[in-house]
Amino acid sequence: MSTNNIQFNENIYTLATISEAMECISVPGVMTLRLDITIKVRTSKWRDCLLEIGKSCAVKWIICNSNKQSTDITAEEAKDSGIKMCFSQEYLCHRAGTYESKAAMRVVQKRTKKNKCSALLRVRGLFKTPEWYEITLTKDHTEHTPGDVHEDIHTLPLAKKYLHELSQQLEQSSKSASQIRIDMLRAIDRYGRNSECKVNYYNIWNLMNKANTSYSPSLNVFACGFMSPIQQNKMKNAASFCLDATHGISEKIDEILYTLLIHDEEIGRGWPVAYMITNDRGVSPIVQWLQFLKSSLFLVNPKQITIDCCSAKVHAIQTIFPITQIQFCIFHVTQAWNRKLSDSVKIPGSLPSEACLLRSEMMKSFQEIVYEEDLDQFHHKLV
Length: 383
Prior knowledge:
- This protein is of the alpha+beta class.
- The chain has four domains: 3-153, no CATH class; 160-213, no CATH class; 223-328, Nucleotidyltransferase, domain 5 (2-Layer Sandwich), CATH 3.30.420; 332-382, no CATH class.
- 34% of the residues lie in helices and 23% in strands.
- The protein is built from eleven helices and 14 strands.
- It has a six-stranded mixed beta sheet with strand order 1-4-8-7-6-5. A six-stranded mixed beta sheet has the order 9-12-11-10-13-14.
- Strand 10 (240-247) and strand 11 form a beta hairpin.
- The termini are far apart.
């Protein structure tokens, strides 16, 4: 496109003011750059400004052409050589191009985001104006409306801040994937932008799958599982198990002993049927251990597994045995309740003994419902 048709906005924008260079479109909360209007941004902030433009305009810009001059050339040398630009990049909309459907081979396939959008954005820097870079939308979007809640917003990648929050929730929270998604959707609706993609189950599943199958590059991380022939036979005949973790098993503080137990009818108490020692506190060793026991036909579709309040164990069990019922140990549940009551239940202006008495009464009410197996009934009694 000829630069003769391009108009210049004389303001020099920063990350704090870049929104002033954009205008609203028909989709609420979504903005756009004006076509063929060049805006100037501070050289040190052009990448941040470009990211902000993408977020505000519901577009992920993809580099399609790049031209960078040697960094050791001076402005005088460039002028003598007839070189004007020190930097130039062109970007396509994330919906540019086409995709050949493979639905015939892969029946379950997401609808493609590619729709031949012709939008083109250019960023360039000139030797004569080192203080700023120029950003210009030279071709407008076609075949879609950026940010449209029904047809377009789902094609955007999830923002990195939400991916980070999801990872934290999956690693540290004992909430289900469904509850994590609901809580994050509420947070996005309250604090997020309309131009941002919403959290979906693909995001959660992909992160869980990545965490469960990733390997640490550290040579210091290890996991070792072992069991005897007698333990193997007892495991095969059991339907209910308990998965426990023991810390402080050696001088090395990071080492953990995981024990899988059954209730032995002959002796009337727990009987360990498998062990694993590791210094990795993540979910991956547990997943790999359970997967080995399953593939070896030692542990096949257990009816129930009892654990403490540990999100890593929850995610590992749900990954390998999705239909297995997970039961939380009553001792650990009551301990968690006690800690929460101690932190949350206060009576301003009263004696500590009065708050302690109130916490005791609340704990009695909790203990009356701790054996409830029906989730709906549990919530009803809790209210």
